[in-house]
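yo, Mobilization protein is done. seq:
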Amino acid sequence: MVPDIGRGSRTHGLLVYLYGPGRREEHTDAHLVGSWDGFAPDPGRDTGLDPDPKVTLARLTAALDLRVKQAGARAPAKHVWHCSVRTAPGDRRLDDEEWNTVAQRIVHATGIAPDGDPDGCRWIAVRHAEDHIHIVATLVRGDLRNPRLNYDFNKAQAECRRIEKEMGLRRLNAGDGTAAKNPSSAEKFKAERTGRPQTSRETLREAVRRAVAGADSEEEFFTRLREAGVRVKLRHAPSGDALGYNVALPGDRNRDGAPVWYPGSKLAPDLSLPKIRLRLTDGATEPSAPAVAADRANWSPPARQRRNATVIAERSATLLERDEDGEAAPQLVGVGELLDAVAQTSPVTTRTELAAAARAFERATRSHVRAERADTRALRSAARGIVQAGGALGRGEDGGTTAMLVSTLVLVALAAARWHSARGHAQQAEASRQAAEHLRAAYRQAAATPMQALRDQGRALPEAQRHAYETTIRAVLPENRTRPGTSTKNDALAATLAQAELAGMDPKALLQEAVAMRELDTAEDVNDVLVWRLRRLAQLPAHPGEATRRPQLDTGRAKPPTNRTGVRTAPPASPRPAAPDPHSRPPRR
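structure:
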């Protein structure tokens, strides 16, 4: 059950809307289900007293505004309190009497009309749909004082949680005041009317998040925003220093034809200019240690940066599992930036799911846990590298390394969910789990081609070699991780072990290292997770088809010795390639 509270100054205008057809003819059978005394005139029901509903509407307005007029100048300028209360999708239908009970409990909990108080504010509850009501109150009490409405939204939320439990409704997660502001009904209707898939507020929030992902300076942040087509207006102090910023979408105007501006702080609590400055200072980007050997320079910049990001994301998952608030909280912010960077540069095949994952995880980046050691440099550096490398293709190394990175990000999102759950952050934990589901969907799309190629290669191995790798897999993996005998689920893993051995690695020692890196309990497919860990540890191509084109795997050259003592032996170093032409680098964003 979701309450939504607003203030206004026109009682009659609100009632006309509630009893009218709605903006899309969605209002049906508008009528009262409750009122302050149970006898308020109802424009939706013909009582025989007023033949014209407009007359009844005027009488209802006058009754609600009676004390406002008596208070005169002492009445608040915005004297109309409006609260819509909606049941969750899938909930049973409440009857009018139940909705009346809900309304009475809400006005009591918020201080509008406490039980047993004869001087409580006047209020009504209008129902014009099956799943929600609108509570309208005028904010002058019978003693002509104003009601005390401190934290009315929090009180309404808490009462809704109790109502859900007692009425057997779907129990939603309690908020903690760190969520971004939801779009208003007017913003939603405007988006529908103009054919936009999102409201302006939501579109701008996503644009600002993407602009700050890996940005190295305030100037670069604003440059990225403008390059994304967002209008930016800075607020300056008399000294000339920027105090804040407003953003607007081109073409989004109000009824007077002026742009509709949104301050950063109204998009989300962590998108104000001071909060962004703090993030840029605490997480000043530094080049991360490369995760790709020098002789892999033929791989594309997006592929190389995705490999680097995979290493850093693994470290973040480890920090989240340490259960230390001061280290974990900033990791969540950095992971959010990394997701935003991946979403805006991902291949078309995975872009929708990755963007949805980034939007969902945005809620998981904010809580009341303070980041005492806000070191996000590694993650911000990874995000910056991905953005600067440009868009990745959905094939070859680009597609394979996208699958490699997303596979790791699934585990990071699940680690975030466990961290939030342990602290009672219900909304953030649920957001992390939603992000993980979107990431899993993106992974299945990105991994389909490279994993199928690996399975084909595994099935093509000689029977004796294949049996040896199956034996190694069953010996190293924890029990119940694999099926007895030859399993098609192990084909890709066997092919990866074969390629690692060809590159001079000890297959068993390498597999043991991959298993020991971190937990596998949350993996949807343990074999897939291990395949990507192995290919990263052994510096194998993420897309198996690339192996046939790599000179360092030429079978005509001597194979390095295989160490059977449990320690990996690095392959001989190849000559370092010449430094790339600086003019061939992607332009700085």
